[in-house]
């Protein structure tokens, strides 16, 4: 008790002797390494008694020839906490402290950061039982739209499994899904579902699974974030069912996506089919093209590789299933003899097993999962800073990530992320559409098969005129070779617009720009020609035939000043 009250002694070493145990203490006002202070004490624990005797050295404290202990200033601690909250790394924090003349060592900084992380994120280790308790505590649905909570969780203990029980989860497993009410509201209004898994976020190597939707501006809106012990079909079933049940229970609404956008993972696809009884799934074009590129590297001829890749790019732009199947047959006819091995692989993998990678598979749906891949990159760049965290600490970080997703979509925030229900038309596209509307390109109008719609045919590229005969060839879709398909299919653009002027943005076009952005200069230009809409005045200030420069237009100068 006396030692603690004096606050100047640290345990040094222990001696075991014939008459008992002696615990020696040193003066902690000097560094452990180096010359020690002459003052010292020790506690004697005699073998023949329960008493403890304190002995003091007759020497007084003398620190003149000793290295003084580097005391950690309180102000330095406050600075470190502020810099830590700014997500700075230890080396950068140390540089800032040196600039502010704080006399601490790098080891002291690292030791304090260990304590700080434990204070903010909890202990570095987490048992399965502790994880279950943590999820249970966070599973209460809050009143606020911007407070994260555990939408659903599942913990399986291997010890609880009956040997006679036939179960898939026969090991220690866990799953938990973090979401927020605002994100679930977006889910209830969505029809497209993106799903993917990412790694390298926690030391244990558990996958982080993210699901969300994309709007008409192709922005991703996550529904939440899940951490599972594996990346199997059961894990994605758990996530999909959690969202569906959560939307129904919390919002009294339904979540029934019409299409899934994902890579070739069978786990995601099978889970989607089982939970939503729907098999409509877009194969990510970016993943497909990367895999094809790797396979093409086995072909020696560079010219052959480039020609095949160009043909596959054209095949991806097919506007309907019928055109895709016919064009695929011509593609195989062209290349099966010249490049037999690749053709065999391409047919088996991308024409029979995963054949939903062309643009016309599902209109107004992204052909890639790039927006979700970009979100994964942002998590690593801006939230974890490419550092792996223990599961207990990543649990706290995951809650912060979901919290930011929700708050950034709060309409009361400055410049919030909007869930767009129709494409936003940029000034550049208005300008291009206005130039197209004022161009001398001929347009042939034909009644559409769709009631209440009209088809407009225009020449593609630099061509100015189009004939009825060319349109008839285009409509027949009869090609004898793949090269003829490329020539005829991409020589004419077909625009389909509603006869109702107010619904012109729901028009369709078969040009690549429309497939990627759900709107194109042809639809806007025809709407301008038909007087369905008016372009903004700033779209008209570029001379016809010229392109708009990058950036916003200059503001008008004051009166009587030359511009």
Automatic annotation (TrEMBL):
Region spans: Disordered: 542-563
Occurrences of domain SWIM-type (ranges): 493-531
InterPro entries xrefs: FHY3/FAR1, MULE_transposase_dom, Znf_SWIM
Pfam short name (any one): MULE
PANTHER family: PROTEIN FAR1-RELATED SEQUENCE, PROTEIN FAR1-RELATED SEQUENCE 10-RELATED
Domain of life: Eukaryota
One of the GO BP terms on file: regulation of DNA-templated transcription
Keywords: Metal-binding, Zinc, Zinc-finger
Gene Ontology MF annotations: zinc ion binding
UniProt keyword Zinc present: yes
Descriptive protein name: SWIM-type domain-containing protein
Segments traversing the membrane: none
């Amino acid at each position: 008790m006396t030692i603690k009250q004096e606050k100047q002694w640290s345990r040094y070493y222990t001696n075991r002797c014939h008459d008992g145990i002696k615990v020696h203490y040193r003066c902690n006002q000097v560094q452990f390494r180096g010359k020690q202070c002459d003052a010292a004490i020790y506690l004697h624990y005699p073998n023949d008694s329960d008493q403890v005797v304190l002995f003091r050295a007759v020497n007084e404290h003398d620190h003149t020839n000793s290295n003084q202990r580097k005391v950690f200033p309180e102000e330095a601690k406050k600075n470190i906490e502020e810099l830590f909250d700014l997500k700075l790394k230890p080396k950068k924090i140390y540089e800032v402290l040196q600039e502010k003349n704080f006399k601490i060592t790098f080891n002291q900084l690292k030791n304090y950061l260990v304590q700080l992380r434990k204070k903010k994120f909890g202990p570095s280790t987490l048992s399965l039982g502790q994880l279950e308790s943590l999820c249970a505590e966070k599973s209460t649905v809050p009143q606020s739209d911007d407070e994260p909570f555990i939408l659903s969780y599942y913990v399986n203990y291997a010890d609880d499994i009956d040997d006679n029980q036939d179960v898939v989860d026969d090991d220690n497993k866990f799953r938990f899904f973090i979401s927020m009410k605002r994100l679930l509201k977006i889910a209830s209004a969505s029809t497209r579902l993106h799903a993917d898994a990412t790694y390298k976020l926690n030391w244990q190597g558990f996958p982080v699974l993210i699901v969300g939707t994309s709007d008409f501006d192709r922005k991703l809106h996550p529904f939440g974030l899940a951490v599972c012990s594996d990346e199997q079909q059961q894990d994605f079933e758990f996530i999909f069912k959690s969202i569906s049940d959560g939307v129904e229970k919390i919002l009294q609404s339904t979540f029934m996506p019409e299409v899934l956008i994902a890579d070739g993972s069978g786990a995601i696809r099978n889970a989607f089919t089982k939970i939503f009884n729907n098999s409509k799934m877009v194969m990510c074009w970016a993943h497909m093209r990367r895999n094809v590129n790797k396979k093409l590297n086995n072909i020696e001829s560079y010219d052959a590789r480039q020609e095949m890749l160009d043909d596959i790019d054209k095949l991806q732009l097919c506007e309907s299933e019928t055109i895709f199947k016919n064009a695929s047959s011509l593609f195989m006819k062209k290349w099966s003899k010249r490049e037999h091995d690749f053709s065999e692989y391409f047919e088996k993998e991308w024409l029979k097993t995963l054949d939903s990678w062309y643009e016309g598979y599902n209109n107004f749906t992204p052909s890639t999962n790039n927006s979700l891949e970009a979100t994964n990159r942002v998590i690593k760049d801006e939230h974890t800073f490419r550092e792996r965290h223990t599961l207990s600490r990543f649990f706290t970080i995951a809650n912060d990530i979901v919290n930011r997703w929700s708050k950034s979509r709060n309409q009361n925030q400055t410049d919030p992320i909007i869930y767009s229900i129709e494409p936003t038309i940029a000034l550049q596209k208005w300008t291009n559409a206005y130039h197209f509307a004022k161009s001398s390109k001929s347009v042939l109008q034909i009644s559409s098969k769709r009631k209440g719609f009209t088809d407009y045919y225009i020449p593609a590229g630099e061509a100015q005129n189009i004939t009825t005969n060319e349109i008839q060839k285009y409509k027949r879709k009869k090609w004898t070779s793949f090269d003829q398909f490329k020539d005829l299919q991409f020589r004419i653009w077909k625009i389909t617009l509603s006869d109702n002027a107010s619904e012109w943005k729901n028009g369709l076009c078969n040009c690549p720009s429309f497939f990627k952005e759900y709107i194109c200069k042809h639809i806007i230009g025809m709407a301008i020609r038909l007087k369905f809409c008016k372009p903004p005045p700033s779209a008209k200030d570029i001379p016809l035939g010229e392109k708009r420069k990058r950036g916003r237009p200059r503001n008008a100068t004051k009166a009587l000043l030359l511009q």
